[in-house]
Design a protein that fits this description.
GMC oxidoreductase; alpha/beta; 21 helices; oxidoreductase; oxidoreductase activity, acting on CH-OH group of donors; single chain; six-stranded parallel β-sheet; flavin adenine dinucleotide binding; FAD/NAD-bd_sf; seven-stranded antiparallel β-sheet
Length: 695
């Protein structure tokens, strides 16, 4: 039975909902159950056959042998993997099982036996061969198999104790502010709903939350829908395993595939990717705006001066200021020392965390609430101004009538895996359906999900550009060992910068990695891998991002997930190589004992001779260890409907009343972290939409 709730556009009575505390308790119970599964606890469904467990154990044993004080991996790690596979989307679990079998059979042509039948030393030799191979497919296969094994092996309190690190934070009690009455937990809704509003905003990340706030501030009745949950401070315990499961899209396992496999990270929660980013805040450089005006014909308002009023409003809301030197940890001074000796411009980053206390886990949710992600800034401020929010609401289609967006249809509760089995939340149980009618629809699902939703809805298809023009802001890192103790788990994970090469499209930002995440970042195997992990207290990490000229595409994938295609061109490979060379120089100038560029064929750079060999080495995309955090451009604005999806007001060229306010609308790579630009452009778009609705 559908419930017709006619919501008054100006008064917005709170939607009928269950007690928040009960919802939070249920969410915590789900978290506890997930943790049990991840650990292979009692009652967990086996995700591997007995033979596959033996394969996983043999791999883990060879890749992560015991050290002086760190335990080695083996059968226990394989049991954890079996349990963990039951908690991820089935197609990802199937892919990992296929990778296990590929590793098992790889030695047969040369050694006449599968991997698990080889003695330990021979297994180690096989893995070293994969690790050192210049063949991208072999290194990608090794990474795919070892990433979850390493994560599960090191995600144990005793491992952290061995290297002197904190494992997790104590749980913080959630506050219960009045604006929470405006939030409905979609997991608790048991009947179909029909709602009406003036503006429907789909997504609560940088773009959707800013647009919702602006529209609600101007007196419009705004309903926000969010696919993820509303995680409060009690959820932010500092455990990456919980964050990847609960706050990252597809458990952080989305990959761009092409001539290099690149993890592409995006958030799935109220606040979107702002919940799991490092809080870095940049305005886009004028050179980027100039390229939009010169190359795409965008008007003068797309300039540093034209967008300055919107940037200023964003900076006030986020309370942007330089990172506090007290919380930079040991890596900030090290990078400062190296940069000064080389004569490079450097300094603390601009961040949105005015009360930061240096917990060092920004990418897994801020436990102190200091980081002004949209879940603690724009979303609450929109709710205070009368907006409504429904969480755990997965939008299936935008409802288009006579060429105009008139609302959307969504399903409530559950996760994306349930949708592949007919939209049912359990045996014999159909998930509730939500139908929203609206005067205008703002889509803000991000550059990966927005094009999939628009394609399902039949929107933005005329130009053929939907899903294309993808930039991903490729990133890499260099590690270094120092005689001094670093303890990189302490301090802001991204608090310092070298912006000397920004005009070349290179931004150096860093940097720290928690112990278990650092374990994933080293592409080595065997004894030298364990030896390095035992030196974690003396290990420093710093990273960089390039303004990419390569472009990719997002297509519909299995089970509603995005299929991300991306081929890195030689210009970007050369820029990545230059970034690695420069970071090696900085670490050497700072007095590093060993510098680890983590490039295939170049394990260490420990002096001028090694650095020259790195410069002379012909590097391919597949030789690099790359990640991506800022996908943009898959539904870009433009003046020409033949080469863009949206007009300059962010309204779809071919569907009236349909607006896109997220990273997909950004025309090109920015060269800097994009959250402030997405917010500024969304505030501008919301102003234009408000004028149209009020006219």
């Amino acid at each position: 039975m559908a419930l017709g709730l006619d919501l008054d556009f100006r008064r917005w009575p709170a939607l009928e909902r269950r007690e928040l505390r009960a919802g939070a308790a249920k969410q915590d119970e789900r978290g506890a159950e997930g943790a049990s599964v991840a650990a292979g606890g009692a009652g967990a469904e086996p995700g591997l056959s007995e033979r596959e467990r033996r394969i996983a154990a043999a791999l883990a044993e060879a890749a992560m042998p015991p050290g002086r004080f760190l335990e080695g991996a083996g059968a226990a790690t394989a049991r954890r993997l079996a349990g963990w596979l039951g908690s991820i989307p089935p197609h990802l679990a199937q892919g990992l099982r296929a990778a296990l079998w590929a590793m098992e059979l790889a030695p047969v042509p040369t050694r006449l036996r599968p991997l698990s039948a080889l003695p330990l030393e021979e297994r180690m030799e096989v893995l070293r061969g994969f690790e050192q191979s210049r063949a991208r497919a072999l290194r990608s296969l090794l990474r795919a198999v070892l990433t979850p094994l390493r994560f599960l092996h090191y995600d144990q309190p005793e491992m952290f104790q061995h290297v002197g690190c904190r494992y997790e934070l104590p749980t913080v009690r959630n506050e219960e502010p009045r604006w929470l009455a405006q939030v409905t937990n979609g997991r608790e809704v048991e009947e179909d709903l029909e709602l009406e509003c003036e503006v429907l905003v789909i997504g609560t990340g940088a773009g959707g939350a800013a647009a919702a706030y602006e529209l609600a501030s101007r007196g419009h009745a705004v309903l926000m829908l969010e696919e993820g949950d509303y995680h409060r401070r009690a959820s932010f315990t500092g455990r990456p395993a919980r964050a990847y499961r609960d706050m990252y899209r597809d458990h952080g396992l989305d990959m761009a595939v092409g001539n290099v496999s690149i993890p592409v990270f995006a958030g799935r929660a109220v606040g979107g990717s702002t919940v799991i980013n490092s809080g870095t805040c940049y305005r886009a450089p004028e050179t980027t705006f100039a390229s939009w005006r010169g190359g795409m014909g965008l008007p003068a308002e797309f300039s540093s001066d034209g967008l300055a009023p919107y940037y200023e409003r964003v900076e006030r809301m986020l309370q942007v200021a330089p990172a506090d030197p007290l919380h930079l940890g040991a890596i900030g001074p090290i990078v400062r020392r190296g940069a000064e000796r080389l004569g490079l411009r450097h300094g603390p980053l601009q961040r949105n965390a005015p009360d930061c206390d240096g917990q060092g886990i920004c990418c897994f949710g801020c436990p102190t609430g200091a980081k002004r992600s949209t879940d603690v800034s724009y979303v609450p401020e929109a709710l205070k101004r009368g907006a409504q929010l429904i969480t755990a609401a997965r939008v299936r289609t935008i409802d288009i009538v006579a060429g105009r967006a008139r609302g959307a249809t969504a399903v409530l509760g559950g996760d994306t895996r349930a949708e592949t089995s007919g939209g049912r939340a359990g045996p014999g149980r159909r998930r509730p359906r939500l139908v929203v009618r609206a005067e205008a629809v703002v889509v803000a699902g991000g550059a990966l999900m927005t094009p999939l939703l628009l394609r399902r809805s039949g929107a933005c298809l005329a130009s053929g550009m939907l899903g294309k023009n993808l930039s991903i802001h490729p990133a890499s890192k260099v590690m270094a060992l120092f005689d001094e103790r670093i303890d990189q788990w302490q301090g802001i994970p991204q608090g310092y910068q070298i912006d000397h090469f920004a005009d070349e499209g290179l931004m150096f930002e860093g940097g720290s990695l928690p112990f278990d995440v650092a374990a994933l970042a080293v592409p080595w195997t065997g004894h030298r891998y364990t030896e390095l992990m035992e030196q974690y207290p003396h290990l420093a990490t710093f990273g960089f991002m390039i303004k990419d000229t390569s472009r990719g595409e997002v297509r519909p994938g299995i089970g509603g997930t995005p299929l991300v295609l991306y081929t890195m061109n030689q210009e970007d490979v050369a820029r990545m190589q230059r970034g690695i060379e420069l970071l090696c120089e900085v670490f050497l100038a700072a007095g590093a004992r060993r510098v680890l560029p983590l490039v295939a064929g170049c394990d260490e750079v420990n002096g001028p001779g090694d650095l020259e060999r790195l410069r002379a080495q012909p590097i391919k995309a597949g030789d690099l260890d790359i990640a991506a955090f800022h996908p943009l451009g898959t539904c870009r604005i433009g003046v020409d409907p033949r080469s863009s999806c949206l007009g300059l007001d962010h309204q779809a060229h071919d569907v009236a009343g349909l607006y896109v306010c997220d990273g997909s609308a950004i025309p090109s790579s920015l060269g800097v972290n994009p959250q402030m630009t997405i917010m500024a452009m969304s505030l501008r778009a919301a102003e234009l939409l408000s004028e149209r609705l009020s006219g």
